[in-house]
Design a protein that fits this description.
254 residues; mainly alpha; 0% strand
């Protein structure tokens, strides 16, 4: 006679953290290599943008994020989550189309790409068992954008985005977007500048979109992987973040 065990499943926290650390270290690696091939150094890119565009980057980013969250969430019932390779391919095609016409088409493509990136992040949340329609999960999806993009020298090494918290209220989403927007504006500004390069605009657009999609998908796995591990193992989130810092070789920036 077989007796079923009701003992809880033992969670190997170290093994799960090792997996998350590997994902973090490898985030966007292929995309960054593509950028390097086309000479995609980020230094000075934003300075090459017209003053009017540069001065309105943050406001445009706030608007794009607000619209993207509504669009990404509302399309979930009509368009299912896609495979990673397909998301990257679609994103690259969108970037190429945006860069083909220079800055005007790149600006028009920006909110569409932002929506796609949010859908990718939402899809990762679902993989880890979270409801993308839940308000706190939507906050987390936006929060993933506070990790530096692949064109940044920082590469999100401070891991601060993992432990950032904000109280849920009627204005909470606007607060999260306002907090994330300055950092994401720099990332998107670099993308726009790369797409505005004559002749190479389409190539640069495809490469940057491919890199961003890969990077933010990896960052979403790190983010929601830690959230899930904290729940499964009943370990405080902040403790897991600190243990992850040690594994990836970064210390807290004061």
């Amino acid at each position: 006679m077989q007796i079923e065990s009701n003992l809880p499943t033992v969670i190997d926290v170290e093994a799960r953290l090792d997996q998350i650390a590997r994902r973090y270290k490898g985030a966007g690696g292929v995309g960054i290599n593509v950028l390097n091939v086309i000479g995609g150094s980020a230094e000075g890119l934003i300075d090459k943008l017209p003053n009017a565009v540069r001065n309105n980057l943050e406001a445009a980013t706030v608007k794009a994020l607000g619209q993207a969250m509504k669009a990404a969430t509302s399309t979930r019932s009509m368009v299912p989550d896609q495979k990673s390779w397909l998301n990257q391919a679609v994103s690259a095609a969108m970037g190429a189309a945006g860069g083909a016409g220079g800055l005007p088409t790149a600006l028009a493509e920006l909110p569409v790409t932002t929506t796609l990136l949010l859908r990718v992040i939402q899809g990762v949340a679902v993989e880890h068992g979270f409801d993308p329609h839940a308000e706190n999960v939507q906050f987390d999806c936006i929060q993933v954008f506070s990790a530096s993009g692949p064109l940044s020298d920082d590469d999100g090494a401070d891991l601060g985005f993992l432990s950032a918290r904000i109280a849920i209220s009627g204005r909470a989403m606007q607060a999260v977007i306002a907090k994330v927007a300055p950092r994401l504006a720099v990332v998107l500004g670099q993308k726009l500048a790369a797409q505005a390069v004559p002749v190479l605009g389409a190539v640069a657009g495809a490469a940057t979109n491919y890199a961003y999609t890969s990077y933010y998908e990896d960052m979403a796995h790190v983010h929601f992987g830690l959230r899930k591990l904290a729940i499964d193992a009943d370990v405080p989130q902040d403790e897991l973040v600190e243990r992850l810092r040690l594994k990836v070789g970064h210390t807290r920036v004061s």
